[in-house]
Amino acid sequence: MVAQGHAAAKQGRGAATVFLLALASAAPAAAEDAASPPVAVAARLVEEGDVARLSFDLSAPVEASAHALVDPDRIVVDLAEVNFQLDPAVGRATPGRGDGVVKAFRFGLFSPGKSRVVIDLARPACVEEVKTTPIVKGSAPARLLIALKRCEPGAFAAAAQASAPSAPVAPQTPEAAAPASGPPVIVLDPGHGGVDSGAYAVGGAEEKAIVYDYALELARQLEAMGRFKVVLTRHGDEFVSLEDRVRIAREANAALLISIHADTLGASAADVSGVTVYTSSERASDAEAARTAEHENAADKAAGVEPKAEAPSVAGILFDLERRETRAYAHIFSRGVVEQWRGAGRLNRNPERSAGFVVLKAPDFPSVLVELGYLSNPEDVRAMTSPQWRVRTAGAMARAIERFFAPPRGEQPGEARADEAVAASGKAAAAAPPAAAPAP
Ligand SMILES: [Zn+2]
Question: What is the pTM of this model?
Fold first, then answer.
């Protein structure tokens, strides 16, 4: 079990600063089990002048390779799967860190059987060496050491050119592609995962865990209704690229995609709270929406994955019609979520917004991104980590989904029918007149 008690010790003398995570004798019994990945029990960053040494104490040696990435400048270290039994906060940016070479670092699962460490650089630094050394004299070499040295921007750019970290293995669609007929497929997309933790709350809660728990609860309630097929884009704490999330939804024949996140703002905006439902648009509805999209779209970069050049747009009028229509349906759904959420949980003062989220780009089915609340707001954090709140607000979401697909008879005559929204997810919908989409 992981022992608590980590100490950020500062060695005051001169330029040397030591960040130390010491875990009391977490002698990993798992190491004896050959099938289990090695366990990382301690991480330490030592900055000295132009040199930074990041080390991980492991229960067994692992192969590792380091690569440089630009925009922003990062060092990515690919390793065999490691079970990081570490406080994730050990790598976070803190005041004082960043005066040297390293701004922050994170670690976690990247692909099946592969882990990754991503080091955000405060200034260009080249890899001096990556090696494993014995933790104590005479023991097996199980301390992974990554040494970085400040270098010229040109040298860093050349290093980035010379090598590329591995791309994630595209996850398989968990379920076989759903037939076009049958119950509507609701794809739930809990954000982040694995090496990408997303945002974090002051109390230490991580976005990736909060949104995954939420997706599981919503899936449970939807499945209990017996009217929908539910597909999740990730299972557990794994990394899935933004592109793969959209692909999974498409292969599953999604009738609706709901991406689930939790936002954060600086301490100066700690009073901002409540749920916000985002739809896709070329131009952000406001500066806040633009900031949120930029932040969420950086998820791949946080995991050290280079975004692919945007696929050439499937040019043509049919594509535009289809996209306009699915966006109109996304708006209808987003309004429904806000209506149902009222009374179940807090709404943001402006709960319906739009911006250019990568994960909402699919033209063939409506999609929304829900920011459940703010990790920078203590009351929102309390709510989002409470099972009662989760059950109540997921119930509101499930009702919104139910009504979207089958509004009660006689309600709002002339309003777009949800079964049309299902149709809009089919290929034939592109030919339907855009007039079917009501004005926003
Ligand atoms: Zn997020």
Answer: 0.81
